[in-house]
Queue: 2 jobs
Job 1
Amino acid sequence: MVEYKPQYYPGSSKVSKNRKKYMDPSYKLKKLRTISDDDLVKLMGHRVPGEAYKSVHPPLEEMGEPACPIRELVEPTPGAKAGDRIRYIQFTDSVYFTPLTPYMRAWMGHTRYRGVDIGVLSGRVPLEMRERDLEKVAKELVETEIFDPARCGIRGATVHGHSLRLDENGMMFDALRRFVFDKKTGEVVYVKDQIGVPLDKPISVGKPIKEEELREMTSEYRVDGVPFREDKEMVEFVQRLHMLRTEAGFDPNRVKGI
Amino acid sequence: MKVPAKRLNAGVEYTTGFTATAAALCYTIVENFKVNLWDADLVHAAVWGRYPQTMEPLGGNVSSLLSVPQQNEGMGYALRNVPCAHIALITKKNAMNAAALSSILEQAAMFEMGDAIGNFERLHLLGLAYQGLNANNLVYDIVKENSKTGTLGDVAISTVKRAIADGVIKPLEKKPSGYTAYTTDDLNKWNAYAAAGLLAGTMITCGSARSMQHCPSVFIYFNDLIERETGLPGVDFGRVAGTGVEMAFFSHSIYGGGNPAVFHGNHIVTRHSKGFTIPCVAAAVALDAGTVIYTPEKISGVVGETLSEVPELREPLRYVNEAAVSIHGGI
């Protein structure tokens, strides 16, 4: 057998290497800040901290499961076992050198986490899971290097802003003013939860990452950063796939050795 | 009630089974209960529902597995118009059998639609074998390998490993970055392996969450991941990924649609993949522990309960296997 090591992502540029790094689950994401469990629960707004998890069906053990070899094999997540509701966290990522592009959230989410439902839209990326599983994953998504307090927004609704210019403090536009820049501390502070309900106490998510650092960390191709067209391997990869899909659709038997 | 079997057998199209049964039921009730001229129309309404003011017997009390032909998206679509809720309940929520029954219906429909012919016949037959019927235990093995902690990404990697080990794909060239693109001399077989991986990925993702709603996300990103892993096209050469985008929208959005249980191969947003998407949806519905409001039980009504009495429909894997063994033995 040919020696095979998972590759995750093609391309030779800095950006493609960053993509590969974030998608590779053996790479441990650097922790940059600490958000307490309770604060995270408040930010998402699905339950009050300390409140029991609501359920959508009884625990699997109580309800019993139909005879199915796949159910016997596949270990349910803790949230599925308990019958938790499915809840979400949703992010908006600015087009200005944020660590993750919307698609990267899906690719990375599916390589790192089990039992996730991620959808990519133009200006927002929801990630849905059983509630207690979601809280664990959300913690890593907000506490590590893939989250920039100023250019990534935790936004459940009215997500607009990803393609707008940053304000004088380097913050992404938010029509609901969920997060504000605290000039005294230099930190970004959430005053509302992800759907815009005011919080009793502001929650700090730390200082914005510096522009130079973001340019090194980003997985966004940009004409004023690393342009996609300069990553020849990447362009070749995309063109190759486009041709293979098209030629295979015409006649799969004729596609050989390419 | 007795239905004239000769008429059913002689029916030019499949609706004869419905029309003959519904009409016979009306006459039986009228005769046995001595219903008079003025009340007979109520019996008709109870049996046929609002038909013929509606295309289908809306609110009626006779139902058939296949929807009326007017609801078919195109020619040869009849076998594709069975909602995944029916499939999951007919197979008693056994995910392997749900995928098998769905795959048999979908791939048989490909013959009726004119897809599985000439150069494409092998594509569909291999798809049925590997994705639908668990050929060489491929689906089961990949699920087993990732059953405890595996992610969707791990399933894509397991699929690629198996394709390399079985000689289906091989390295083409190593790029300066170290990335290796793979090639194949048998794209149909690669598609079958990827389709088996897609089903395994659905079983891992929807299975670990015991939730059906995750399946469209699997359709898009399993294909993205396996394409990036190999440089080879994803399942059905991009059509499953495209179908996933539409299905994600119409199964999650504020704009309408429904949960995965209402989808089928004849559905306007899931018709585009030629038989490779719906078996995974059926498996996802089978693995759901009760996360949706509009449940498969509500959607399917008595259809699932009744047709699960037919052993060949309830356990297609077993009966196809037995039939295959008998034919093979005969050959």
Job 2
Amino acid sequence: MARITASVYSSHIPAVGAAFDLGKTHEPYWQKVFSGYDFSKQWEKEQKPDVIFLVYNDHATAFSLSMIPTFAIMTGPEFQPADEGYGRRPVPPVIGHPELASHIASEVIQKDFDLTIVNEIDVDHGLTVPMTCMFGKVDAWPCKVIPFAVNVVQHPVPSGARCFALGQAIRAAIESYPEDINVQVWGTGGMSHQLQGPRAGLINRDWDNEFLDRLIDDPEGLSKMPNIDYVREAGSEGIELVMWLIARGAMADTRGGPKPKVAHRFYHVPASNTAVGHLILENA
Amino acid sequence: MSLDKEFKEIPGTIIFDAEQSRKGYWLNQFCMSLMKAENRERFKANERAYLDEWKMTEDQKQAVMARDLNAMMALGGNIYFLSKIGATDGKSFQQMAGSMTGMSEEAYRDMMINGGRSIEGNRRIGEHGDAQRTNKDK
């Protein structure tokens, strides 16, 4: 049967992708950001995941105001990096896993999570920047990816509690897939940042670190935090952090298993307008 | 159930909800059109003529031509959509975000390097933080 071996959490800042693509990773400003992923690149080489279930949000790239799905699972075979107005990022296409993705959709929809199913979509920096951080420069991504998009652009966005419960349903679905494959679940976005208005530039280091602590030790309690707290404390775009609870809900301890091991934790301010947070949790 | 009114009590912040989305629908969809190179060229060649092809209000068109991001936000724009105008102008996200704060580009960049804007005094309208400046404009 398929196994979830680990969950990975990471910011997905577009400027980080641009810095990587323009060869700026050794400049002191960016070196501090990329150094947080040195461990992770080595770790991924050892982990050799077969599939990543990657939770991200689209930033007015593939979804405009004409369609705003709250939760969308991508069941297609291949997804191109999007042109977000600066040209496509020079990264490989993302190869999907239509069979596993369709299985997950079928299972969780029957557990009352009403997903939107998407077969054709270009994926934006929300997905490709964490891939770059975790795998570096590659000709082809070393594993398949199931993109999963969450609306965190137009309020109301889903609550942390709903995301956490969805993560638990996704875990059950993955573990009922008959092939023996190694699956990681990633949650991306955040940490504190605000990109708009006179409060732009907001960073809340204490809140971010408490979020990381609670994500590790008390995810269920954390999942009950109302959305207003994310926006007030972590900035209007800090609401992206609800997506991390989907990945956390997919870990074994949320259904009576052992607590995960913290393999890696990193926090740095700033990358452009944003606090960078990164965490790797391994199932025991 | 409408959105908790506490969302409207955060200083220097506009929450993009269904009401803002309706108000800004064509402003945001105009921004999406700038994802295509040929549209960017047409917009740059004659901004007024290009904007007149969209069902936007005069206020929205004026805000776009003035590149007044705070005004565009107040008129229903969402920053992820508005960023397409910045991309057309060759601006980075940091330049765009900074332009909404009343700070110089350099002062904003320095603030970020020094840890960003503090949350203290900036949680609720009526406190005394540095983001309270334009509450009267909201």
